[in-house]
Structure formats: structure tokens, C-alpha cells
Amino acid sequence: MLKFTETLIPTLKEDPVEAQVVSHKLMVRAGLIRQLAAGIYTWLPMGLKVLRKVEHIVRQEMDRSGAQEVLMPAVQPAELWKESTRWEQYGKELLRIHDRHDRDFCFGPTHEEVITDLVRKNLQSYKQLPANFYQIQTKFRDEVRPRFGIMRGREFLMKDAYSFDLNVEGLDQSYERMFQAYKRIFQRCGLAFRPVEADTGSIGGASSHEFHVLADSGEDTIASCSACDYAANLEKATAAPAPAATAAEAAADMTRVETPTQKTIEEVASALNVSPAQCVKTLVWRDAESDAWFLLLLRGDHELNEVKATNIAGAMSFMPEPGDVASALGVQVGFLGPVGAENFPVDVRIIADHALKGAHNMVCGANEAGWHLRGVNWNRDLAAPEFADLRNVVEGDGCPRCEAGKLKLNRGIEVGHVFKLGTKYSEALNVSVLDENGRGVNPIMGCYGIGVSRIVAAAIEQNHDDNGIVWPINLAPAQVHVIILNPKEEAAALTAVDMARRLEHAGLEVLLDDRDERPGVKFKDADLLGLPVRLVVGGRSFKEDQVELKMRRAPEPIKLPKNDAVDYITAKVMEAQAIV
Amino acid sequence: MLKFTETLIPTLKEDPVEAQVVSHKLMVRAGLIRQLAAGIYTWLPMGLKVLRKVEHIVRQEMDRSGAQEVLMPAVQPAELWKESTRWEQYGKELLRIHDRHDRDFCFGPTHEEVITDLVRKNLQSYKQLPANFYQIQTKFRDEVRPRFGIMRGREFLMKDAYSFDLNVEGLDQSYERMFQAYKRIFQRCGLAFRPVEADTGSIGGASSHEFHVLADSGEDTIASCSACDYAANLEKATAAPAPAATAAEAAADMTRVETPTQKTIEEVASALNVSPAQCVKTLVWRDAESDAWFLLLLRGDHELNEVKATNIAGAMSFMPEPGDVASALGVQVGFLGPVGAENFPVDVRIIADHALKGAHNMVCGANEAGWHLRGVNWNRDLAAPEFADLRNVVEGDGCPRCEAGKLKLNRGIEVGHVFKLGTKYSEALNVSVLDENGRGVNPIMGCYGIGVSRIVAAAIEQNHDDNGIVWPINLAPAQVHVIILNPKEEAAALTAVDMARRLEHAGLEVLLDDRDERPGVKFKDADLLGLPVRLVVGGRSFKEDQVELKMRRAPEPIKLPKNDAVDYITAKVMEAQAIV
């Protein structure tokens, strides 16, 4: 059993000033972690116990899925990253290292190159496929702005897995096996989570899912349907096409209106007394590779989805600075619009979001500083443009998959990612295995990550109250927190130790608070630490042969005859574990 | 159960060309590891299982000793290393890193600074002592010449522990607890090992022990007594003073002899027809700090122990280049001697090894190129010098601790080290805890390392034969290697799988060779992999309801009725585990 007096549990009364999110505050206050440098943390004994529990669940489920555990090095030679061309492409997040002989290495943020090299050198035949290799290992990503404690740290523990298959059907099966393993992992961790569709970037057609733990503090927005199981992250989520608008009012004449200082949608809408939805937001986009220019049109109340814009315009495309736009198009940003765009000094391709398809009597910039147009209508004042999905979905959008549902938005913390990689790395590194016909083929890869340390923080974000952490049963550093109310009450103290021993013999893990501290301090620390069961031995109850039991999630303690407590607690814990 | 067809076990027939020692050869050939870069290895599934077994034993015994597990970062900020002054002192083995903001970090080769900083910030009172923190973690040392596979790799897995005590008595107890834990760890690993006294360098008086696995290929030499339990590494080992020599011959006259080309002891002894033991080896040593010069005298058949020389002459002392010696003393190296040393241009302090105390009629250099002296005697031809222990012990030296024993020399592989650190780091980092009287004191530290990955290699160095690895029972990746002799014999194949399952239900770990390969290939791989028990199912024996069992350490297989085999194997394995 763990004794409080023999374990470093440096609890704090105050929130650390640098902590913004609740998991960071509570992990420091409960003595689970301590910062060593920005984004770099030491795991103290109680924190490490939680981390190992997550690690254990992940390992068991990965093994059950048939994946093979390996351990790759943290330090990787640059040569491999040059083969995949990521040495040049990867930005400053890649921590580059020079060894004593001035050879280039990096502290691995991910291991596609290393595992692909291993497969290239050690697998020859389709008979050795499918294969899925995983590791649980320390990674480093040199985040520009590490934050939120271990949630977005620089050094972290990750489970990464890489599957190799002979063909697409094999990849589909490997992917599905991982998908199911991930569901079991997060279920066993006791987390409310959601797998959501994620953008696959430049790899067309392949699928990708993120696993999000739902929590208000999450950095990511996820959209999910109220009726069916559609869910996607904001980058990827699409809305059903809005029903064709019925013209509520007759087409007005197109007129020029003076808007000397009104540039934003809000300013223009307010000055002209229309709703932002009536306005057209005109954004400029440019593909650096082809030097192509785009006008992207959105309903004034909608936001551009940059991932979707990039998927349309090219991987190297982006929104130029206002000054660059003004000098290229000859119009000041804030007064841009699609009418007369053919007169810009450069060719622009006009793409409007689907939501503008049925729009009429629109307000947009007049391409002249200080002026806007109103009463603008497609096909009369300008040709109907190309339409595409360009925007972030909003709460209440129709579900793209079912007829009945509306989208709702939630915040989520990404804790896992499954991804159909395809042959990107097996081609770049020239991996070839012989198929049944003796022909060499590039294996098709999938990659699968879980943020092991991040799960600890995510679990707290989702499971806490004003007093501290409320651990899910399978992640708690121990299940039972036994408090000796007053070490000077010898009989009670001896009974507490005896009960702790009997709980351990029943297979439970126990933290015994044997400190010479006031009861109030011990209760506060127990709430902060968040073990599922608190058992208090001593005081008046003890004289009546009773002990006090409080489940962390319950509002009030209950009293129990002391002779029944061990059996009762054991049954309660087993029951909770069985539900998970 | 592990199936061979579903596990990456890339065995090789040939030794890898780069491998020099047997553990390196066998780890690669048995498919336990693969090299990624010099001194950097990936652990494949079977190798990782062994590594995890070692890790598990280490963790259990550390926990049992009362140490608390933590997990410190691999990447450490330079500031801490500057506080301890090791940022400047540590050489190129320290892998220095610059992050994206150009701040200095290192990939930790050890964690004294980090743990001391943690204690400084989180422990305040003597009530929190003693405390012993450990971690099992990936370390990096940028070895100038990585070699012997994982034995002297750059990235490796280490258990490091750091104890903090209020006073010397506390440190002694913490040290002893670690010493006993280490003995249990290496015993449970099934290794023949020896704790030996080690040099403590500049920290006077403190003790230090290394734990060596005995193996002919070991890089270290250890001396141990044939009679008592004295053992020390060569750096530290001392010999009993030789009995005072009885002058076998009368004192001869001192004469000059011409030795035009004879410089080495061998050349001089041969030219003058005396034994090397009759000659005096004269070495020059210099302390860079004080610019003091030393003549170190040894019996011609003895070797200088540089650690002992440094301990006498100072931490910054060393043997200068021959050219520098010649210009400082005015005599060519090879013809130096103690007679007339008072005429050297610089003052020299003459120190002779104890073994020269009773010497007479010695041969030594005449301090003139081309000339030696013979018949040199203390107190007549020169003053008797200061005597000290300067040499490496040799086989047959008397034990310094008991009267009866003689020293013998063995080769060893250092797998553990326990060290009384003292207050070096707690002073440098200003760690202060309040003692019972409310006074701040620097805690006294001990540090304790185990090379977790190195143990895997050391176990192989000590346990192998011409055919492969012979795993100690508790380190084997699995205990039983079940071979399906011929997958086409369906009944036998089914029986093999069934037996493997039953062995697993009995608590054993099983590797099932289900490959479609010739029996010879499977037998060779089984020997190479070295699991303790090999069970062959199929062929003629199977028709007679028998299976073939071979213990890896036994010369020949035996036959057993197939219905008895599972119980028999289970009993054998349990028995072996009980002995460890």
C-alpha cells in the first residue's frame, strides 16, 4: 500500500499562475506533475501511476488487436527523413540535433520513416503481411507555444502504430481493427468520446478519423448530427445543401452606395440596415505554386474553412496579406466584390460557397474604396460562379448524411487518430514485398496514434468538480483513499492499516493518508486527488464501530459498520470496473 | 500465444559483419534488435519482451525497497547543468540541443540535476526524508565509439535512482537497501554476478560498488579473493604488501651500462640478462593545476594504475607526451631513472610503488640517452622515496583483506553501480531541508544505476553456446518453444496448438513455430532463440503418441507420452523459476 508519508504528493492550495485549463491546474495542485521547462514535465509518483494505467490499457488492446510491440529509438538519423523529403518539409517542430561527429539527427516526433525502413530491410513476402507494429514511446515536438500542461507539451508519451498491407482491402481491415481497438481503449479509460471524420489533406480518397474526448475546454470543434452517427471535426464537417431559397422579395435594382469607412461585414450591414447574411464576404486566396488568384465568396455570417480552401486551391495556397491583395488587384481590402472582377489586373477564379447559391439582392464591395453595391443578383449583375463547400459548418446546419438531423457543435480534445496513409512512405523509401505472383509491390500503410499522456489530462478535463479530480475507476492511481482521521487514536489507526491491507488482499489499490495533519487538510487533499472511494477511520464514528465512506462522485458520505466496510468497498469497486 | 508467422522474428544464418562480441551477433541473428544508426537500435518483438522482463524485475525490486517511481524528461534545460557546473565539465558525450528559440538543452545522460531540482522545490522537512526516487527511462550518451551492439550503445534504457538523507547514517542505510535490492535483481535475472568495490574518484571516503556480470568478453577487469569475499575493479583493487624481500644476493656495485637502443623494459631486461621484475619502470606524471612533476616508479613487470596516480597527484594530473617530458627534464624517455633526479631542471616528487620497497640491485635509466644503471640500491645510491600503491594488481597478488587468499582476475560487464554521492549536487543547487532543530541542511545523496538494456546483452554473453542463446528462465521472451514439425500433418498441428493453449492456461508463455519450413530450419532457429524448453510435435513420435522435449541446456532431447507433456513442462518451468 502507498503511504502518504512515504510518497511524494506535493499538493498545493493555489492554482499555479501559469495554468489556464483545469487539467493543468489540477495536475499541478494534486502533485501529479511538475514542470521542468516550457512544455517539459516530470511525472511524480501519483501522476505516473495514472500514466501507467493508460499505457497498460493501450498495450492490452493493441496486443489483442494482433499488433506487435517494438521499441524504436527516440533519436533518428536525418538520412531517412531526407529519403521521405520530410527533412525539408517539416518545420521547426522537428527538433534537429547534431551529434559529436556533426551528423544530423532529430528527436523523433513520429516514426513513419523508421518503421518503413525496418520493414524494407526485414520483410520480403506477402506471407509476412498483414503486419502492424506499435510502440509506446517518448516523443518530442518543438511546439512554438507549449501550453495547457501536458496536453500540448513538447515531450510526451505516445502510442504509435503502423500497419502494412498488400492491398486496399487489407488496409481497410487493418484500419477497422485499429478503429475497434481504439473504441475499446477509450471505453476502458472511462471517457466520453467520439470518433469523428477528419480531413486527409492531400491524400485524396483515403479516410481518417480522430478520436475526441468531449470537454468544454477542448481546442478542437467537432460537429455531430442530432439524429444519425455522423461526426466530423470542423476542418472536415460539411452541411447539407440549404433548401433552394424562395425569393422573399422581388429582385431590386443594383445600386452603388457610399460606405466611406465601413469595411467589415458588421459595419456594412449595420450602415445599410441589412442582416450580415444578406452580405457577401469576399476573400482573396492565392496558390503560391501556380500563382493563381481566387476570390472566395461566403455568406456574411459564415466563416472560411481554410482547410477546404487549401484542398481546392492547392497545398501551397494561403490568404495573402491585405497590402499584397491591394497591390495585386488595385482595390483596398474591405471594398472587394465579385462584380467587375474581370477588370482586375490579374485573373481571378471566383468560387462561392454553396450557401450563396440561392442568394439574391446581395450586398458586396464595389471594387472601389468607399463604395459597396446592393441589390446584386446572380445571372443578371454577374455570371453565376463556381460553387463549392468553403465554410465552417454552424450549429443548426443540416446533417450531410441523414435527412432528419441538425448539426450541433461540441468542443473536443483529440486523443487518437487513425489514418490511411497509402503508399507515401513505402514508395519514397522503395519498400517492396513480393506478392503471390512474385511481383514486387509497395505495401499500403496505415498509421495510428494515441496521445497516452494527453489522455491523462483529457480525463481530468472531463472528470472534475470544484474540489478536484474525479478519476474514472480504471485510471485512478489507486481506488481507495483510506484516511486515518487522527494518528493519535491508536486503535483507529491500527484498524485503518488493517482495512487497507485487507482491501489490498482483495485486489484493490490503496493510498493510506497516515499524515499528522488536521482532518480538514486530509479531506481537501482527498477531494483534490480524486480517488473513487474515500474511507475515513477514526473519531466519533469509530467509537460506535463505524467508518465513514464517501464515493468521490456522491454528494454525501455514508456510515457503515466497520466490519462490513471492506466487503462493501470491494463490491462497489468491482461493480464500477465491470461497467467500464 | 505468439505465433512465429505473426511475429517479426527475422533470424539470420550469418553473423553480422559489424558485430565483434557474441551478444551483439546473437541479438541480431536471433532477430531481437536491428541497428538504425551507430549505437542506436530498434528492439524487435522478441527482444523487447526480454527487455520488459528485466524492466519488470527491476521495478518490482525497486518498489520493494521503498523507492518511489517517477518519470523525468529526456530533454533537460542547460540552466540546471550550469548550476552544477557540469555543462562545462561534461565532454562531448553530452548531446547538446538547441530548441527552436535557440535555448540550450541536452538529451539527458543522467538526472542528478533534475532530481535535485525537484527535491529543492518540493521537499522542505526532515519528515519527508529519507526519500529515494527512481525512473526507468531512455538515456543518450554520445559515445565516441559506440560498439558491441546495445552493450555500449548511445541510446539505452537505464534505471537510475537518487536517494536523499538527512545524515550519513541515513545514507548508509539507503545505500545498503539499494545494495540488497541490486543483489535480488541480478539473482532474479539468473546472472552470475559480483559486486565489486569501485573507485570513488575525487569524492574522498565515500563508497561505491559496481555490479559485474562475469563474462570473458567483459570490458572490465575485476580482482577477487580466492578465500574471502573481497572483490574490486582493477581501478580500485589493491594487493597485500609483499613480504619483505630477503636479499637473495649481496648488494652489487652500481655501474653504468650502455644500452644504445634499448628503451623498453623488455629490451633492457633482455640486453642485460635480468628479469623485468629486476628493472624499475620510471614514468613521468604532471599535475596541470599546480604544475607539479612526479616520477612514478614501478617494478618492470607491473602496470601503472592511472586512477591511483590521479588520486595521488590530483584530479587534473596526467602523463605528458614523451616530447614534453624530454624538454622539461632534459632526458629522453626510455632512459629516465630516479638516480640523480635532483639535477632535473624542474623539481620532481618521486613516488615508488609498494612492490619496490624491498627491491635491491635494481636496473634503471641513467638519465642519459643510451645508458642505464644496474646494481642500484635504496639508501645507498639514492634516498628511499615515498611509497604508495600505484599499480594494477596482478593474478596471484595477496588479498588486501584476508591473510589466506590470493587475488584472481576475471572479466566483467558492469551492469549496475551504487554510489555515495554526498552533498555535491545538493550544495551546488542549494537544496535545503529543515532538520529536527529547524536548521537548514543539504541532504546527503546517493545515486544508483542499472543498465536495463545492457543486462540483456550481458545475460547473453554469459548464457550461450555455439548454436545460440541460452536464456535464463526469468529473462526468456517465452519459456516454451512449441514446434509444429510439419504443418501438413493436421492432427499433430492441432495437438501442438492445443498443447500451447494448455501451457498458457498453466501460466507459461509460448512461442508456436507454425511456419511452413523444413524441420532443420525450425530446430536451428529454436536453438538460436534460446527459449528454455523446446517441444516438438509431429513425425514418427507423434504416431506413437509421443512428443519430443528438449531443454535448451540439456545435450539431448527426451520423448514423453503426449498426454503427460504439458504437466511435465509446467513442473519443470516452475521448478526452474523457484530456484532463481
From TrEMBL, chains A, B:
<keyword id="KW-0030">Aminoacyl-tRNA synthetase</keyword>
<dbReference type="InterPro" id="IPR007214">
    <property type="entry name" value="YbaK/aa-tRNA-synth-assoc-dom"/>
</dbReference>
<dbReference type="GO" id="GO:0004827">
    <property type="term" value="F:proline-tRNA ligase activity"/>
</dbReference>
<comment type="subunit">
    <text>Homodimer.</text>
</comment>
<feature type="domain" description="Aminoacyl-transfer RNA synthetases class-II family profile">
    <location>
        <begin position="39"/>
        <end position="472"/>
    </location>
</feature>
<keyword id="KW-0067">ATP-binding</keyword>
<keyword id="KW-0648">Protein biosynthesis</keyword>
<dbReference type="InterPro" id="IPR033730">
    <property type="entry name" value="ProRS_core_prok"/>
</dbReference>
<dbReference type="Pfam" id="PF00587">
    <property type="entry name" value="tRNA-synt_2b"/>
</dbReference>
<dbReference type="Pfam" id="PF04073">
    <property type="entry name" value="tRNA_edit"/>
</dbReference>
<comment type="similarity">
    <text>Belongs to the class-II aminoacyl-tRNA synthetase family. ProS type 1 subfamily.</text>
</comment>
<dbReference type="Pfam" id="PF03129">
    <property type="entry name" value="HGTP_anticodon"/>
</dbReference>
<dbReference type="InterPro" id="IPR006195">
    <property type="entry name" value="aa-tRNA-synth_II"/>
</dbReference>
<dbReference type="InterPro" id="IPR044140">
    <property type="entry name" value="ProRS_anticodon_short"/>
</dbReference>
<dbReference type="InterPro" id="IPR002314">
    <property type="entry name" value="aa-tRNA-synt_IIb"/>
</dbReference>
<dbReference type="InterPro" id="IPR036621">
    <property type="entry name" value="Anticodon-bd_dom_sf"/>
</dbReference>
<keyword id="KW-0436">Ligase</keyword>
<dbReference type="GO" id="GO:0005524">
    <property type="term" value="F:ATP binding"/>
</dbReference>
<keyword id="KW-0963">Cytoplasm</keyword>
<comment type="function">
    <text>Catalyzes the attachment of proline to tRNA(Pro) in a two-step reaction: proline is first activated by ATP to form Pro-AMP and then transferred to the acceptor end of tRNA(Pro). As ProRS can inadvertently accommodate and process non-cognate amino acids such as alanine and cysteine, to avoid such errors it has two additional distinct editing activities against alanine. One activity is designated as 'pretransfer' editing and involves the tRNA(Pro)-independent hydrolysis of activated Ala-AMP.</text>
</comment>
<dbReference type="InterPro" id="IPR036754">
    <property type="entry name" value="YbaK/aa-tRNA-synt-asso_dom_sf"/>
</dbReference>
<dbReference type="InterPro" id="IPR004500">
    <property type="entry name" value="Pro-tRNA-synth_IIa_bac-type"/>
</dbReference>
<dbReference type="GO" id="GO:0006433">
    <property type="term" value="P:prolyl-tRNA aminoacylation"/>
</dbReference>
<dbReference type="InterPro" id="IPR002316">
    <property type="entry name" value="Pro-tRNA-ligase_IIa"/>
</dbReference>
<keyword id="KW-0547">Nucleotide-binding</keyword>
<dbReference type="InterPro" id="IPR050062">
    <property type="entry name" value="Pro-tRNA_synthetase"/>
</dbReference>
<dbReference type="InterPro" id="IPR023717">
    <property type="entry name" value="Pro-tRNA-Synthase_IIa_type1"/>
</dbReference>
<dbReference type="GO" id="GO:0002161">
    <property type="term" value="F:aminoacyl-tRNA deacylase activity"/>
</dbReference>
<protein>
    <recommendedName>
        <fullName>Proline--tRNA ligase</fullName>
        <ecNumber>6.1.1.15</ecNumber>
    </recommendedName>
</protein>
<dbReference type="GO" id="GO:0005829">
    <property type="term" value="C:cytosol"/>
</dbReference>
<dbReference type="InterPro" id="IPR004154">
    <property type="entry name" value="Anticodon-bd"/>
</dbReference>
<dbReference type="InterPro" id="IPR045864">
    <property type="entry name" value="aa-tRNA-synth_II/BPL/LPL"/>
</dbReference>
